[in-house]
Amino acid sequence: MQKYPILDKINTPEDVKRLDAAALPELCAEVREFLIEHVSKTGGHLASNLGVVEITVGAHRVFSAPQDCIMFDVGHQCYVHKMLTGRQERFDTLRRFEGMSGFLRPAESPYDCFVSGHASNSISAALGMARAKRLLQEEGRVVCVIGDGALTGGMAYEALNDAGQSGEPLIIIFNDNEMSIGKSVGALADRLSRIRLKPRYFKLKAKTKTLLQRCPQGQHVISGISAIKNRLKSTVLKETLFELMGFRYLGPADGNDIQNVCTLLQEAKNLNEPVVIHLKTVKGKGYLRSEQNPDEYHGVSAFDVVAGQVKSKDQRSFSTVFGDQLCAFAENDPHLCAITAAMADGTGLSEFGKRFPQRFFDVGIAEEHAVTMASGMASRGARPVCALYSTFLQRGYDQLLHDVAIAGNHVVFAIDRAGLVGADGQTHQGVFDVPFLLTVPGMTLYAPASYAELESALQQAVYHTAGPVAVRYPRGGEGRYTDNTFDRPFAVLRHGSDVTLISYGIMINQALSAAEKLANHGISARVIKLNCLSNFDLSTVLASINETGRAVILEDSIQAGALGEKIAAAAAQQGCRAHIKLLNLKNRFIPEGTVDQLYSAYEIDSDAVVRCVLEQKDGR
Ligand SMILES: Cc1ncc(C[n+]2csc(CCOP(=O)(O)OP(=O)(O)O)c2C)c(N)n1
């Protein structure tokens, strides 16, 4: 017997259109089974995808991709879209090295109309596509799916403000499951829950429908009722935010009912104006464990479907060490505050939030706001620690420059997931922070390599550094290096006379392994570990490079503006004649894979260092 009798026959969205409407619920059930079967093997964003099955099937039934563009905000919920657009066979490679991306990636398929990964960009992108289509007289509509979590991001409001008055026939599907990764936060989430709970509106709606059905011409009236319904709704609910911004608003309605979804999408398609369809869905639907714990099943590693996900609670990581240290500070320091942008759990701050709720601020997916808000706090004497993933801090670069650095406010940035992060791929690798932070005047940047060093770095940053300061540390746990040399800006970890290996943070483990391997080749390598990457006197490091005559600078960063270039420039300026090689990620985007696979493929692992030194020795 075929496991997925309907889904197996779906190779393109045209196949979804050809199905009998009565077969759609069964297709949705098969899609859910397929998701659970595959994501439990590869890991990935399970709960979000289980929630959008009907929305995605409906979108591909009513619209005609790729001529119609279907955009997913964040894109972590695009797996169903990938299944319906000819990529079912690639699911075994989901988020793997040289495999299928877990986000929309235009290079992967013509059905992926725009890059996704970072939240809240979908409405802007969709509006841009709609405008371009009109200008170029190209056929096709633009639809975007955005969750209530992504709708906490400021860019979404900038786009709504523009799109609402644009007149473009853009369709926004608002996927409202009341969840970001954790519970959605903020005034909008609060307001929406009141809309959902407004019993007077729903009672009135039901009564009107029953009354009309009893009238002889009632059915006609019901078909044309949309306008009246919207007016009725507005009177009772006041106008929704979307209506105030110029959108036609349809809903709220059950987004896990496929017929419902198709009807509303068709209605929106018939309208020639900006429309928001408000659909309520259940995150994690179809797998009880994820329905009950959607936050735990938002992003999962491989797991056993029957037993569920087993999370070892005590596993230490740089994030948990950070969270513990911050709680320890907060116990004795009433001015200390923690800020997260929708990543309380990921950054290790959940416990802080429970223990110090008055001093814990989850601002939603709003990194720009987080940075400036932290600076506002610092300007009035509070001690804010703003914990963001490296890749998401990219959003706050101008806020860092303009709102923090010019005034020299003492904001501490805890930069989690710095360096390569693995399976999330090119949109999430934390490989730009060193270059962009080093461009900020007055910024101090620390790079601890062990748990003990992270604690010392935080102590240094929170209590002994003025102005803006960042501490960068990687995803996961420490490596072979577990010492603490944080009482100095840099430390010589190993003495040697033939070559100097310079690195920082987690990459120091690769440098130390390389030094051992080089010893087997008869090469004596000195290893220098940098603790502070900014504002320090490079002359001692340059003197060491001069002594050995050769150096390799190893970084998990793109090259432009990173430390290697800085040291090489300083060496040139000071007339240092040593031969310096830079080993880093060059200037390119790094796709998904395990971190070790990527170190090796992009040549920043210990073997690459050895090869580099041997080539240097041969004069290459
Ligand atoms: C700029 C940015 N910050 C943080 C994240 C991390 N992140 C990924 S998904 C997500 C929650 C999204 O919630 P929602 O849009 O409601 O989608 P759901 O998973 O609930 O369907 C967050 C915070 C991100 N992708 N981009």
Features of the shown structure:
620 residues, 6-stranded parallel β-sheet, 5-stranded parallel β-sheet, 26 helices
Average pLDDT score: 93
- What is the CA–CA distance across the termini? 61 Å
Radius of gyration (Å): 27 Å
Give the oligomer, counting copies of the same chain as homo and different chains as hetero: single chain
Task: List cofactors, ions and other ligands.
Answer: thiamine diphosphate
Please, how many helices? Answer: 26
- The structural class is alpha/beta
Q: In terms of per-residue confidence, which ranges show pLDDT below 50 for 5 or more consecutive residues?
A: none
Q: Taking strands numbered 1, 2, ... along the chain, how are they ordered across the largest sheet?
A: 7-6-8-9-11-10
Shape: globular
How many DSSP E strands?
16
Q: What share of residues is helical?
A: 40-55%
Characterize the main sheet. Answer: 6 strands, parallel
Q: Hey, roughly how much beta strand do the residues contain?
A: 5-15%
